[in-house]
Amino acid sequence: MKLQRTFIALLCFVLCGHALAQDMDTELSNLTERLAVKIKDKNMKKVAVIDFTDLQGGSSELGKYIAEQMTVDFVMTNRSFSVLDRANLKRILAEHKLTSQGLVDPDNAKKLGMFAGVDAIILGTIIPKGEKISLTAKIITTETAEIVGGDKAGFKTDDTVKQLMSQQTAGSSAGGIDNETAKVTKKLGDLTVGSLSLQIVDGGSQYLLTMTLANTSPKKSIWVAVRGGMFGNSQPTLTTPSGVQFGGHDVTGIPATLYQNNGFAQATEIPSGDSVPVTIKFSSLQGTAASVGAGQYTVQMEFLLGYDFNNGSGQCSVKNFVAKFTANN
């Protein structure tokens, strides 16, 4: 009887350990299946899966593994769409000097669609939460760079996951900053601003800032906007190393709105543990064309952050944001 109990306990230990090891792959397969349904509903014929990144835009072997597994899961089942081979994707990005983070720019997304013949890209964010990993995945059309679908998943942090997270991919340097794009991370209460990159677009007439806004609150949604508009409200500004100032007039992902009476009239909800991509185009306030110069560029803006937003209004606080980094062509 004692031997039988020992055998049962050992069997349970083995089975539980196996289940823990399979937790990540199972969740990734389920996530891929749900995304496949949305891709089919959008009548897309070819997609590409980009390496998942952390909130700072940093690459790791875990992000690469997730993209590889999802690519395989997509092609293992007979689909109504095809998937671009990841080796070809890497080659195309390198040839045309495109980055994964830069693909949220409509111009770059269109370039990838043209060069690779894909209708959409699938990318996502890895968010550690104690002993669990939360994933947010997005389907972005290459025609407009708009998010046309998304989903979330989660799995336990076992030894395999920890090892993959600790290993950065080739081409990345310490701190999650790669050799192609300078990135900055700022925490403003429950709002984390990460994955910032600055590129010259539209033939050198503008700068494009891309970022990820994440809600790190464990329980509550937050509502976010960029402060901007008339009547003394500040708008995002970018100052070049030579002192030329550019204004951020075109914001996508969250609204640019007035701040009046300690409140705002427009905002985007970010659920707990979720994130949204945001882009801001900066145009010259002095009629000067954009250019890459030696030194650091300074971005300044004010985020409006609130926890209650109903019927087109809500109370909020102003969070000042200042970041310095380099620009890329």
SSE order and pairing:
Blueprint: H1 2-41, E1 46-49, H2 61-76, E2 82-83, H3 86-95, H4 106-116, E3 120-129, E4 132-141, E5 147-156, H5 159-166, E6 186-188, E7 191-201, E8 206-215, E9 222-227, E10 237-239, E11 245-252, E12 256-257, E13 263-264, E14 268-270, E15 275-284, E16 297-306, E17 314-315, E18 317-325
Describe this structure in words.
The protein is α+β, with helices and mostly antiparallel strands and 329 residues long. It is built from 5 helices and 18 strands. The strands form 3 sheets. Strands 6, 7, 8, 9, 10, 11, 12, 14, 15, 16 and 18 form an 11-stranded mixed β-sheet that branches. The protein has a 5-stranded mixed β-sheet with strand order 2-1-3-4-5. A two-stranded antiparallel ribbon has the order 13-17. Helix 1 crosses helix 2 and helix 2 packs across helix 5 (159-166). The N and C termini lie far apart (73 Å). Residues 6-21 and 169-182 have low confidence and may be disordered.
| Helix/sheet category | alpha+beta
Count of helical segments? 5
Q: In CATH's first tier, which class of the largest domain applies?
A: Alpha Beta
**Spans where pLDDT lies below 50 across 5 or more residues:** 6-21, 169-182
Q: Write out the CATH superfamily name of the largest domain.
A: ABC-type transport auxiliary lipoprotein component
Number of domains: 2
- State the shape: globular
Measured distance between first and last alpha carbons: 73 Å
Mean pLDDT: 79
> Describe the biggest sheet?
11 strands, mixed
Helix content: 25-40%
N-to-C order of helices and strands: HEHEHHEEEHEEEEEEEEEEEEE
Oligomer: single chain
Radius of gyration: 22 Å
The second-level CATH architecture of the largest domain is 3-Layer(aba) Sandwich
Total beta strands: 18
Indicate the proportion of strand residues: 25-35%
Q: CATH fold name of the largest domain, please?
A: Rossmann fold
